[in-house]
Specification:
The complex is a heterodimer of chains A (113) and B (115). In chain A, 0% of the residues lie in helices and 57% in strands. By secondary structure, chain A is mainly β. The radius of gyration of chain A is 14 Å and the shape is globular. Chain B has strands spanning 4-7, 10-13, 19-25, 31-37, 43-49, 56-57, 68-72, 75-80, 89-96, 104-106, 110-114.
Chain lengths: 113, 115
């Protein structure tokens, strides 16, 4: 069955450093890989997506890479800030309209000042 | 994006009772989904709410336990029936606007605690 693994449940870094989160998947060939942010008591918020034929995507301080050979995505937050502290979810979507998203468990990032 | 309102935001329920969660979107949407997020777990898709027809359930979820309605393109309900403590979870409504990239927008969730 399809499986998504996010490298660790928790990641602690200092303000100003780059946070790198990993998403690995098996038994799946996603057309899109998406990243969401979830704050405690809130619903997930879409951040960024990358298509299967793209290697890298950037949005402000965020960067996502996608390696379909390794079946892995890396999510980077540069110049991290305490406000970046949240849980980050990786999600995969296949081809075809209405295909549901499959989510990883998430990595909780804590940025200390 | 859109405003997605879920009610109730939280509730404490007794074993054996049922609770209906409402999801209202301020614009018409193509697809609506219901997810469950158990403590420390990922979001798990319960079902796709189809407008005007029966919902499409994922493996492990059945209509008798989680009946879903979607009477129009802006509203859906999820009922958690005959609740047990194992149903304690956050239930999330999400919408897809039909973009090919398929990003979802979520409501704030409904946190249910079953005693």
């Amino acid at each position: 069955s399809q499986k998504i693994e996010q490298n660790s449940e928790a990641l602690n870094i200092q303000e100003g450093k780059t946070a790198t989160l990993t998403c690995n998947y098996t038994n799946y060939s996603p057309a899109y890989l998406q990243w969401y942010r979830q704050d405690p008591g809130r619903g997930p918020v879409f951040l960024l997506l990358i298509r299967e034929n793209e290697k890298e995507k950037r949005k402000e301080r965020l960067k996502v890479t996608f390696d379909t050979t390794l079946k892995q995505s890396l999510f980077h937050i540069t110049a991290s800030q305490p406000a970046d502290s949240a849980t980050y979810l990786c999600a995969l979507r296949g081809r075809g309209a209405g295909t549901a998203l499959i989510f990883g468990k998430g990595t909780t990032l804590s940025v200390s000042s | 994006s859109a405003v997605i309102s879920q009610k109730p935001s939280r509730d404490i329920c007794q074993r054996g009772t049922s609770l209906t969660i409402q999801c209202q979107v301020d614009s018409q949407v193509t697809m609506m989904f219901w997810y469950r997020q158990q403590p420390g777990q990922s979001l798990t898709l319960i079902a796709t709410a189809n407008q005007g027809s029966e919902a499409t359930y994922e493996s492990g979820f059945v209509i008798d336990k989680f009946p879903i309605s979607r009477p129009n393109l802006t509203f859906s309900t999820l009922t958690v029936s005959n609740m047990s403590p194992e149903d304690s979870s956050i239930y999330l409504c999400s919408v897809d606007f039909g973009r090919t990239t398929g990003e979802l927008f979520f409501g704030e969730g409904s946190r249910l605690t079953v005693l």
